[in-house]
Structures are given as C-alpha cells and as structure tokens.
C-alpha cells in the first residue's frame, strides 16, 4: 500500500521512479479505510534528501500512510528553500491539538553541543512531552535517539575521540522482541556521529532493553518497555552514497574527517560503496509500523488510555 503525500512534493517523482507506491491526496480521499498518520520532525539540514530516504522506507509496507512534515519554529533552516518549507511543512502550534499514530524524530548536526544549548531544545522537549499522550510510538534517529535517552531516561552522551563514521557490524541482542523479527543475527548499518552513549547505562536502566549493539559494544537499537520510544543511534535510512557525500563535504570545508570505515571498497574513494544495509532498513521500518504503530494504535483516538 502507498504513502500519501502531496503530488507537488519533489520526492514524489523520485519515489515513483523507484516503483515505490505513492498515492496523491485526491485518490487517497476516495478510499474507505483508516490510514496511519505519521508525523516526521525533520531536523536534518538537507530536508529534501531526508524526506526521500524516509518516504522510501515508509512506502514499502502493506499499510497506507499519511505523512505530515514538521519543522521547528524556534530555528530557521538555512539549507532548504523557504518555498519548500512553506508548502510542505508545518509547525507544532498548528498540529498540537491533533493525534498521530507514529512520530519520527530525525538526527541533527548539533551533537557536539550540550542538549540545553541547542536553540530548539525547549521546543523539542515540548514535542516529546506532547507525544507521550498524543502519539502511539516514536522512532528516534541518531541525535534524536540521544536526545530521547537523555530527556526521558537520564542517559547522557559523551564525546568520542574522533568522528565515528562508517559501516559497522551489529549483533542482535534479543530476538524475542518484535522489532527484531526477521533480522539476521549479524547485520550492517551506517553511523556518522561525534558522540556516543554508554552500553552499561542503557543495560542498567530498568525501563530500556538493548536490542542491537555494534562490534565494540556501542548501543544501536534500544526500546522502552512500553514501546513508546524506540531509539536508533545510527542511520539505517541512509542511501549508499550518503557517507561519501558527507566525507566530500567535510573535506571541502577543510575538516580533518576520517575516511569512513568499512565503506569504500579497498578504502579507495573512487570505488562505489555497496549498499549492505538496505534490507534491514526496510525491515526495521516495516516492523515499527506494523507491530508498534498499526497493531497498537486505536481506530478512534478517544479509545486510547
């Protein structure tokens, strides 16, 4: 089944070219079914790229999904046109009286700041508080995952000696949890971050379960006991070329960024990186939508307690 987005959204054409089933608003209104309503708080600078990455994954499930894009009101994005934001995004004040089946909070390039120093931190915590009673399940990605761990569970991030960037092996810690259904025991996923969280702190928290960790023990997928919050510290949504583009961008700025580990074949930047995490990206989003959103959300929201 399709995702329902505005037919004017630039990502719509790209998704159709990839044979992702996209339904425009006019056709969706003729179907007598109750679609899932998913809110995406997009904190990434290049919003159109992130839209495409997430919509590609949300559109590859047997569920019809309505998408609403959310931007911060307390921070003005500089890498996305005002036209795009005005036409395809809304702010919290406009949707705070609504309820959503799922919420995705993306990463953001602010992880080297203290949480409280981020210009939109208060707005973000307001949204996270609101989600507790107005959203069935929240999927937090990268910095969004760290923000959730800090705000909801008191687990702080810490600085890494250098940027942790590349494709890493991860090991499933608990196959009984539905979010991990279908996952291989060992799978690959991209990371691109300057900070980490303690595995010991996650495992010691009585309301959290560690579902997957990398070879060096870094937490990757974490779920709260009530499944209200799912934290993914990496970027399964990334395209095969995303780390290359980040590396070239950083080098062009003169940053001493390390070569992404286990990414370029033979560590040769002229060779095409293989997409080794595509299937698990789709699996994670499909499992989240099915088990933690569709199966749990009420048909009528006043039924939720």
TrEMBL record:
Site, as annotated: Important for acyl-CoA specificity: 111
Signal sequence region: none
Binding site for substrate: 163, 192, 249
GO molecular function, one term: homoserine O-succinyltransferase activity
Catalytic function, reaction form: L-homoserine + acetyl-CoA = O-acetyl-L-homoserine + CoA
Origin: domain of life: Bacteria
Keywords: Acyltransferase, Amino-acid biosynthesis, Cytoplasm, Methionine biosynthesis, Transferase
Pathway: Amino-acid biosynthesis; L-methionine biosynthesis via de novo pathway; O-acetyl-L-homoserine from L-homoserine: step 1/1
Family annotation (Pfam families): HTS
Annotated site, Important for substrate specificity, chain positions: 192
Subcellular location: Cytoplasm
Keyword Kinase annotated: no
InterPro entries, alphabetized: Class_I_gatase-like, HST_MetA, MetA_family
Keyword Amino-acid biosynthesis among record annotations: yes
Active site: 142, 235, 237
EC code(s) of this entry: 2.3.1.31
Similarity-based family: Belongs to the MetA family.
Function, in words: Transfers an acetyl group from acetyl-CoA to L-homoserine, forming acetyl-L-homoserine.
Entry protein name: Homoserine O-acetyltransferase
Species this chain originates from: Lentibacillus kimchii
């Amino acid at each position: 089944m399709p995702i329902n987005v505005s037919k004017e959204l630039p990502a719509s054409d790209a998704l159709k070219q990839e044979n992702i089933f996209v339904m425009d608003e006019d056709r969706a209104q003729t179907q007598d079914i109750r679609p899932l309503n998913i809110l995406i708080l997009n904190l990434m600078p290049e919003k159109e790229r992130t839209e495409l990455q997430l919509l590609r994954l949300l559109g590859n499930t047997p569920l019809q999904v309505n998408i609403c894009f959310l931007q911060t009101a307390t921070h003005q994005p500089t890498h996305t046109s005002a036209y795009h934001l005005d036409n395809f995004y809304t702010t919290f004040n406009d949707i705070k009286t609504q309820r959503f089946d799922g919420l995705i909070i993306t990463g953001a390039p602010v992880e080297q700041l203290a949480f409280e120093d981020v210009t939109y931190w208060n707005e973000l915590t307001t949204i996270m508080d609101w989600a507790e009673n107005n959203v069935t399940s929240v999927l937090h990605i990268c910095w969004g995952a760290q923000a959730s761990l800090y705000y909801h569970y008191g687990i702080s991030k810490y600085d890494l000696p250098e940027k942790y960037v590349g494709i890493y092996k991860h090991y499933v810690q608990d196959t009984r949890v539905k979010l991990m259904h279908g996952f291989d025991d060992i799978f690959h996923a991209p990371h691109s971050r300057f900070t980490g969280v303690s595995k010991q702190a996650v495992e010691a928290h009585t309301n959290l379960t560690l579902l997957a960790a990398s070879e060096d023990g870094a937490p990757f997928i974490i779920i709260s006991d009530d499944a209200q919050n799912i934290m993914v510290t990496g970027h399964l949504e990334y395209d095969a070329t995303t780390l290359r583009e980040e590396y070239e961008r950083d080098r062009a700025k003169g940053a001493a960024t390390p070569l992404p580990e286990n990414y370029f074949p033979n560590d040769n930047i002229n060779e095409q990186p293989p997409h080794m995490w595509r299937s698990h990206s789709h699996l994670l989003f499909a499992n989240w939508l099915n088990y933690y959103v569709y199966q749990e959300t009420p048909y009528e929201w006043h039924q939720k307690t």
